[in-house]
Write a structure and sequence with these properties.
With about 425 residues, the chain is an alpha/beta fold. Helix 6 packs parallel to helix 7, helix 10 packs antiparallel against helix 11 and helix 12 runs parallel beside helix 13. The two termini are about 30 Å apart. About 45% of the residues are buried.
Length: about 425
């Protein structure tokens, strides 16, 4: 595992913000007024999608994609000035939260500062022109990390930002050499001790595809040598298959169990129901009670919890990365109080030292998960199709408060009556 990784990150709740979509104004200054509401949901870390200027050449949509970065050392003028961003970070810190920014180091826009000043730092196609290895990324060109001077520039940039922010979410981190990230982390640590490092690790199929072209693609096991946290894309295909009615719940649960044996003991996965690259969870679910079960399960899973802005308002439309589509706050629905309660359960009753295992009741679409440390055993029962059923559990008989709803939960003869609402209970050892 990465040297210096603190497993207390498993207790953290991360809230992801796309400045363009977070408010009607879409500016740094307008977000400051929203911080109290965000903090009240139990959020510890705010992660900003890329805040840098966006390239014009080859841009997608009206406004371009934030992942087509034009200048690593500046902010998007549509969002405000650097001083506005600094004031926003100061306000985040005043609320007791930390901040991560998105780092897009695999590529830049075709008209980036680096492509103009250092064209020798870029990958070239056979005809000598700029290009990229993933064909559908038409608005970007790939950097060439065989150029050591590029390493120096990129690390100096990270050190510059580390004077202001608390960490980095690194876009498609496996496509950038692991030794680069290792050196970057070591140097940034001198500027920002305890800096947070989140890798957008990639799907196993994507790893195989990139490697088949003779290119770098680090597996999650390799990523954990340097990064504190990694995406859970290793289980995402199974989750999506179940969500769409194409796969078995047990397959997803089996992969979660496999993570416990596959990765270092102190591994930290970023757990999410949705992000800026996936459909909204509410575009799949049929009712509020389903959402409550999925959301409670999210917080019970072992790892850092991520909420994508708008999820609390049950948005079912994913904002375009290429246009300005503010999140919808007028849905008439708001699960902020549930998120607040689940954050309290996560921090107050689940332990960052817990072991985790699970099983699936396929007949009733119920996920049954356990967490345990040397002080307590915790049980989570999540009825993903809101079915009622008697569930067999490995848990001491007794009467327990449901930490989600406050209702009484009776465990009798190793069984619990599930009535379709999420259940989390804890028994002291």
């Amino acid at each position: 595992m990465a040297k210096g990784t603190n497993i207390s990150l498993r207790d953290q709740v991360i809230y992801c913000v796309y400045v363009r979509s977070q408010t009607e104004e879409g500016t740094f200054n307008s977000i400051a007024a929203d911080l109290g509401r965000i903090r009240a949901m139990g959020v510890d870390i705010i992660w900003f999608l890329p805040i840098h200027p966006i390239g014009v050449e080859g841009k997608k949509g009206t406004l371009g994609c934030p992942y087509a970065n034009r200048d690593y050392r500046d902010v998007n003028p549509a969002y405000g000035e650097f001083k506005d961003f600094k004031h926003l970070i100061d306000a985040i810190h005043e609320y007791g939260m930390k901040c991560m920014i998105d780092v897009v180091y695999n590529h830049t826009s075709p008209d980036s500062t680096l492509s103009e000043e250092h064209p020798e730092w870029f990958y070239r196609k056979s005809d000598g022109s700029f290009g990229n290895h993933v064909g559908d990324w038409t608005d970007i060109i790939d950097l060439d990390y065989d150029q050591r001077e590029l390493w120096k520039y990129q690390i100096e940039t990270l050190k510059m930002w580390a004077k202001t922010v608390d960490g980095f979410r690194c876009d498609v981190a496996p496509l950038v050499p692991l030794d680069f990230w290792r050196e970057a982390r070591e140097q940034v640590e001198a500027i920002r001790p305890g800096c947070l490092w989140l890798a957008e690790s990639i799907e196993p199929g994507f790893v195989r595809f990139i490697r088949s072209m003779g290119l770098t693609a680090a597996s999650d096991s390799e990523i954990f040598q340097v990064f504190d946290m990694a995406y859970e894309y290793d289980t995402r295909d199974a989750f999506d298959d179940y969500l769409r009615g194409h796969g078995a719940l047990s397959h997803y649960v089996d992969l979660l169990n496999f993570q416990e044996a596959l990765y270092p003991e102190n591994y930290i996965k970023l757990r999410f129901l949705e992000n800026h690259d996936t459909p909204r969870i509410c575009s799949y679910l049929e009712n509020e009670q389903q959402l409550r079960n999925y959301t409670a399960m999210l917080y019970f899973l072992k790892g850092a919890t991520m909420i994508y802005a708008g999820q609390e308002f049950e948005n079912d439309h994913l904002p375009s990365l290429f246009e300005r589509e503010p999140i919808d706050r007028d849905t008439g629905r708001d699960i902020s109080s549930l998120l607040q309660r689940l954050a309290q359960v996560k921090k107050g009753h689940l332990s960052c030292a817990d072991h985790f295992w699970g099983e699936a009741d396929e007949k009733h679409d119920i996920a049954i998960f356990y967490r345990q440390d040397d002080k307590a055993k915790k049980l989570g029962i999540f009825s993903l199709q809101v079915e009622s059923a008697t569930v067999k559990v490995d848990f001491p008989d007794g009467v327990y408060p449901n930490l989600v709803t406050g209702e009484r939960v009776v465990v009798e003869n190793g069984a619990v009556q599930c009535i379709g609402r999420p259940i989390i209970i804890s028994a002291n050892l």
